[in-house]
Amino acid sequence: MVESGTCLFCGATLHGRSDKKYCDDMCRNNYHHNNKKDTIILVKNTNAILLQNREILRLLSKNNKTLVKKCELVNRDFDFDKITGVHKTKKNEEYRIVYDYAYRLVNEHEVMLIKY
Length: 116
Ligand SMILES: [Zn+2]
Known about the structure:
The protein has a domain at 35-115. Helix content is 36%, strand content 22%. It has two helices and five strands, in the order αβαββββ. Strands 1-5-4-3-2 form a five-stranded antiparallel β-sheet. The protein starts with 24 loop residues before the first helix and ends with a strand. The structure holds zinc ion. The site of zinc ion (ZN) has 7 residues, from loops.
């Protein structure tokens, strides 16, 4: 008795070898095509948010260092989770990098922006 699974693409019950993942090559190709499409959409959306984040930081930055109210970022739909890197200073302050800008949460209401 061979345990049967379901096709990763169409969900049909599979018979035969237990390591089978798809009904046939068509389902396999469709599955990979969809995955690729999802990846492209995900990357595109993430890039758009990163670019928007950078633009917000650029607009709000007046000097090399600018202290702004956190709500100014929130109001512009800044996405605090989309960053390109993290930098910790010797004082253990965490700067979150967005390309060539970075921000640090100073307290609940204020954010320090720097041109990185
Ligand atoms: Zn299938």
